[in-house]
Amino acid sequence: MIIVTGSVVLKEENLEQALALSLEHVRRSRAEAGCLAHAVHQDVENPLRLVFVEEWADQAALAAHFAVPASRAFARALGALAVEPPQLQVFEARRTIG
Predict the structure, then answer these.
(1) What is the rounded distance in angstroms from the CA atom of residue 19 to the CA atom of residue 33?
(2) Helix (H, G, I), strand (E, B), or coil: what is residue 54?
(3) 65 contacts 56 by C-beta, under 8 angstroms
(4) FRET partner for 59 with CA separation of 20 to 30 A, picked from 13, 35, 76, 88?
């Protein structure tokens, strides 16, 4: 399994737009082949920070997700609303319990 985490800190005036874009992206991504989970969370300590957590079946599914034009457009749009470049980390994982 591939786990992706990401975060972005937004300009205050862009928060509502970023939330709408993020929810649209998450919902669209959940319908993609190989997407096991995809969510966006608002940081309770810094409400201007959004955190993304994704689970993908394999690297091929994630690569296909990154190749979707709407995914690339989302990343560009979200970056334009941020105060600093978005952060992204990708991990290979295997379930050990459950």
Answers:
(1) 24
(2) strand
(3) yes
(4) 76
Using the Cα atoms of residue 30, residue 21, residue 92 and residue 97 in order, give the sign of their dihedral: negative
Which residues, listed in sequence order, are joined to residue 51 by a DSSP beta bridge?
7, 41
Helical pair 69-80 and 59-67, crossing angle rounded to 10 deg: 70
CA 81 to chain centre: 15
Q: What is each CA distance from 77 to 4, 29, 50, 94, in whole angstroms?
A: 19, 16, 14, 32
The sign of the torsion formed by the CA atoms of 61, 65, 63, 4 equals: negative
- The pair of structure tokens assigned to 28 is 């669209």
pLDDT digits (tens, 9 = 90+) for 77-93: 999 999 999 999 999 99
* 3-class secondary-structure state, position 96: coil
Task: Give the per-residue pLDDT at 50.
Answer: 98
8-52-64 Cα angle (round to 5):
110
- Under DSSP, is residue 34 helix (H, G, I), strand (E, B) or coil? coil
